[in-house]
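In the design runs reported in the main text, the only information available to the sequence generator was the tokenized backbone. The following block is the verbatim input for one such run; it is reproduced so that readers can re-run the procedure and compare outputs position by position.
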């Protein structure tokens, strides 16, 4: 029991570190736009380009560095991230900041695959009992149902992060929430994410298809209510509910792709990471375009469009 608890704590620490690397930019996006004197949609490139690079590097970079000493690679990757963050913190040039943000993203999958010094020291040996060749796993990409699941996950993740990427600025400029209250709301969203992640397992066990079908509908309705919400308390409640739904999203996405390729779970997990990051990139880019064309308040319609597209993909996948 003690070893299981330690293992869960290691995984929790790893997830926190990995996601914080990618998502910390969202909370300070308005300040980045102000600092570099760019529009909020242009600042969104700090999120979308990072996600795009992770999606590209995910299937390849861990293999490239698999032959080297893990500790050496881990320290090198950490140094790259530290260097990139320092450059981004002190530069006054937006292009340089983008470069400092994108380059470390190439090594993000390497960092994930090595899983922290803690994994190396404390996670017990997990020998492979049934080995499936890489070529055999890639064969799942010949199936139409797998591609439909991938596209569905792209849209599902884009529906969440296409709006969430601009949440801090939305709360300040549209919802008129005081700056001192925005950070606690973002923290509440993250806490609700944890709860939603826990609930998602129970929902999938209860009724898999119903839970997955309901996700894009509930998310779209939340965006509609958020668009018309004029009361700060109502906005806060919607943010909490959105956090719950966002937490459910990640587990459902991973389940949906794994369900499509149960014989290649390891490869399917890589497909999930790539599809999720492509969704984040596309959703953030669409959100930025909508903001530039129609204003910040309209960004929720990008999320609604992606949610509708994901529902269509899910229905097609089931047909």
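Verbatim output:
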């Amino acid at each position: 029991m003690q070893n299981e608890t330690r293992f869960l704590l290691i995984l929790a620490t790893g997830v926190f570190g990995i996601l914080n690397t990618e998502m910390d930019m969202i909370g300070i996006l308005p300040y980045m736009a102000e600092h570099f004197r760019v529009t909020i949609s242009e600042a969104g490139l700090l999120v979308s380009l990072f996600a795009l690079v992770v999606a590209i590097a995910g299937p390849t970079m861990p293999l490239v560095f698999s032959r080297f000493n893990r500790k050496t690679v881990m320290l090198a990757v950490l140094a790259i991230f530290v260097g990139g963050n320092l450059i981004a913190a002190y530069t006054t040039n937006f292009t340089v900041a983008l470069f400092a943000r994108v380059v470390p993203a190439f090594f993000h999958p390497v960092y994930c695959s090595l899983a922290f010094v803690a994994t190396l020291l404390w996670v017990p040996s997990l020998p492979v009992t049934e080995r499936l060749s890489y070529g055999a796993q890639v064969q799942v990409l010949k199936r139409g149902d797998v591609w439909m699941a991938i596209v569905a996950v792209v849209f599902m993740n884009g529906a969440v992060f296409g709006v969430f990427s601009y949440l801090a600025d939305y709360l300040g400029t549209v919802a008129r929430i005081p700056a001192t209250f925005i950070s606690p709301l973002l923290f509440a969203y993250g806490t609700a994410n944890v709860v939603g992640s826990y609930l998602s397992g129970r929902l999938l066990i209860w009724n898999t298809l119903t839970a997955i079908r309901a996700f894009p509908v509930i998310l779209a309705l939340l965006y509609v209510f958020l668009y018309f919400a004029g009361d700060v308390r109502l906005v806060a409640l919607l943010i909490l509910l959105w956090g719950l739904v966002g937490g459910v999203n990640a587990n459902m996405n991973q389940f949906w792709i794994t369900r499509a390729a149960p014989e290649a779970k390891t490869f399917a997990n890589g497909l999930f990471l790539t599809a999720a990051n492509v969704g984040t990139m596309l959703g953030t880019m669409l959100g930025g375009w909508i903001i530039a064309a129609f204003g910040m308040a309209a960004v929720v319609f990008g999320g609604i469009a992606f949610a509708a597209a994901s529902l269509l993909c899910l229905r097609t996948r089931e047909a």
